[in-house]
């Protein structure tokens, strides 16, 4: 391996473990002489740059009895070999990347060996061996269809629209992609909860530079979770089925209206862009105050209200039902509890019949509901709790479950509400968004609280510059 070029030698002087790195490079050369070291400048996701070494070359992959040379690139961080390389595909102009469990849309490679890197047990040679084995199972590149009569299997074109399984060859299903915007504790909790649900093929985690909810994306990038792409660019959200917004803006304002206005201004630079990039997505809002910000997102997106929902009282409703079922055994009677209205002290708890589209509350159930609601008031809403709730809502949409959730939705026309205002109401969630259930009969106290929320939200919205 030629390490004598001036640019390579100059770059090597900046490596913390230079001698160990050189020894590792020599081992790579003995087994993979086609991998050539070069000096270059790597741009990190936060736009910072660093002069680093990279290994450039092809790896041999066999598929369906034929041999292919897949071009790859491995950036070696300055703490190499004690940190894993950043591995990328290098598609030529006539190649396209096939996203999969080991490769994302930008060609970044994800492998167990990278995730569990531990030098000296972990080596580049071992990584290349693993890479070849994984790509023989699931080829990451295919050729563009040129229509010029060339061999359709050249450069794996045959598998560009097919996937191989134990049952033979079957059509690829669409990639399920979700974007989470906002890099704070809630964003982190939502990402981890979505991964745990297992319904996402690709998860983009976007940390906005002018956002108050920051801090988690660096750790997410360091530990290189499968399926997760960390980004600061809204363009990486393109093609998402659900976009979850947890971001809140910095503000030095003293007034509550001023604080919320900073969030509205933040949204102005986010919502129209993500809507344009993912025109079929459902927007799931968790920024605060959630009813107001869901309304803002609906206005700014131009989407139908069925595809803009807020986290609202879903967590409270799930907790209420748990308390009713476990503590008070209401699952025996077929009753279900809901927390509806504004996400504030004015939210109210009501009961319904499980499985009924016409939801009706009964005066005989009110003592039961009140008792459960008092227990519920002692439960705080931490980031992990809300993240689990958001993942559950997203799962219902992605899997088209037609499950009912109490989410913030356009309440106009419900129960005589004549103005455009968002409140939590029971909605059936599926692939196309939300379907609001019919009006439920409220007691005088509950109805009064809902009306009070409608008036206060309408007044507050009038003070904001959309």
From TrEMBL:
Database matches in InterPro entries: L-lactate/malate_DH (IPR001557), Lactate/malate_DH_C (IPR022383), Lactate/malate_DH_N (IPR001236), Lactate_DH/Glyco_Ohase_4_C (IPR015955), NAD(P)-bd_dom_sf (IPR036291), UBQ-conjugating_enzyme/RWD (IPR016135), UEV_N (IPR008883)
Domain of life per record: Eukaryota
PROSITE patterns assigned to the protein according to its UniProt record, in alphabetical order: UEV (PS51322)
GO molecular function: L-lactate dehydrogenase (NAD+) activity
Family annotation (Pfam families): Ldh_1_C, Ldh_1_N, UEV
UEV domain: residues covered: 2-145
CDD domains per UniProt: UEV_TSG101-like (cd11685)
Gene Ontology terms: biological process: lactate metabolic process; protein transport
Protein's recorded name: UEV domain-containing protein
Species for this entry: Albula goreensis
């Amino acid at each position: 391996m030629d390490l004598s070029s001036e640019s390579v030698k100059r770059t090597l002087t900046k490596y913390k473990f230079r001698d160990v790195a050189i020894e590792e490079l020599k081992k790579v050369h003995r087994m993979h002489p086609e991998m050539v070291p070069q000096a270059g400048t790597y741009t990190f996701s936060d736009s910072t740059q660093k002069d680093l070494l990279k290994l450039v070359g092809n790896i041999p992959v066999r598929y369906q009895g034929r041999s292919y040379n897949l071009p790859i690139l491995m950036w070696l961080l300055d703490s190499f070999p004690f940190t894993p390389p950043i591995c990328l595909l290098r598609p030529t102009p006539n190649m396209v990347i096939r996203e999969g469990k080991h490769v994302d849309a930008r060609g970044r490679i994800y492998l167990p060996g990278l995730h569990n890197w531990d030098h000296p047990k972990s080596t580049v040679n071992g990584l290349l061996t693993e890479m070849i084995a994984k790509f023989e199972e699931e080829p990451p590149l295919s050729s563009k269809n040129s229509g010029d009569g060339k061999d359709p299997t050249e450069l794996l074109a045959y598998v560009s629209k097919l996937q191989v399984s134990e049952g033979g060859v079957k059509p690829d299903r669409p990639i399920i992609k979700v974007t989470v915007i906002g890099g704070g504790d809630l964003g982190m909790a939502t990402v981890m909860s979505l991964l745990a649900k297992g319904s996402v093929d690709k998860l983009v985690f976007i940390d906005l530079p002018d956002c108050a909810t920051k801090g988690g994306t660096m750790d997410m990038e360091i530990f290189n979770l499968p399926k997760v792409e960390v980004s600061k660019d809204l363009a990486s959200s393109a093609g998402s089925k659900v976009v979850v917004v947890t971001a809140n803006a910095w503000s030095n304002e003293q007034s509550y209206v001023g604080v919320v206005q900073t969030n509205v201004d933040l949204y102005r630079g986010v919502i129209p862009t993500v809507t344009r990039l993912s025109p079929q997505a459902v927007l799931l809002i968790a920024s605060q105050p959630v009813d107001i910000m869901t309304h803002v997102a609906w206005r700014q997106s131009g989407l139908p209200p069925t595809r803009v929902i807020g986290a609202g009282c879903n967590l409270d409703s799930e907790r209420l039902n748990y308390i009713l079922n476990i503590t008070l055994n209401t699952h025996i009677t077929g009753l279900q509890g809901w927390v509806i209205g504004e996400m504030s002290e004015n939210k109210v708890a009501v009961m319904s019949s499980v499985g009924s589209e016409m939801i009706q509350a009964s005066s005989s159930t009110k003592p039961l509901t009140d008792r459960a609601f008092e227990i519920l008031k002692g439960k705080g809403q931490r980031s992990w709790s809300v993240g689990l709730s958001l993942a559950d809502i997203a799962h219902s949409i992605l899997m088209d479950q037609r499950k009912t959730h109490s989410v913030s939705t356009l309440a106009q026309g419900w129960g005589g509400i004549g103005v455009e205002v968002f409140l939590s109401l029971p909605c059936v969630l599926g692939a196309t968004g939300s379907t609001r259930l019919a009006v439920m009969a409220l007691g005088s106290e509950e109805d009064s609280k809902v009306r009070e929320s409608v008036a206060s939200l309408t007044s507050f919205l009038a003070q904001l510059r959309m």
